[in-house]
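# step 3/5: fold
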Amino acid sequence: MAPQYGARRARIVFSDSAAKQLENITSEAEIHALDRALVVLSVAPDAGEPLPGESIGPRLRQYVDDVERVRLVYWVTALKTVVVVAFIEV
C-alpha cells in the first residue's frame, strides 16, 4: 500500500522589501506570530482576501490575523505553488 501524504504546501518566497522588513523584526513574539501566519498561507494560499483594484499584474491578496495581529500582502503564482510576500506588518 502506498503511503498517504497530506496536501502539498506552497513555497513562500519574500520580495526584497519584505526581506528588509523581516530584518527589523526582533521580538520573539512577533516572529512566532509571523510564523503562524506563514504556515496558514503555505497550507491555503487563497486564505486571504483579494485587495480591491485593477488586476493588470498578479492579483494582490491580504491575509489578516486579528488574534496574532499580523497582516501580510502577497500574491500567488499561476501554479499556486509559490506565495510571494510583498508586505509584512506585525
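# step 4/5: annotate
The mean pLDDT is 86.
# step 5/5: archive (pending)
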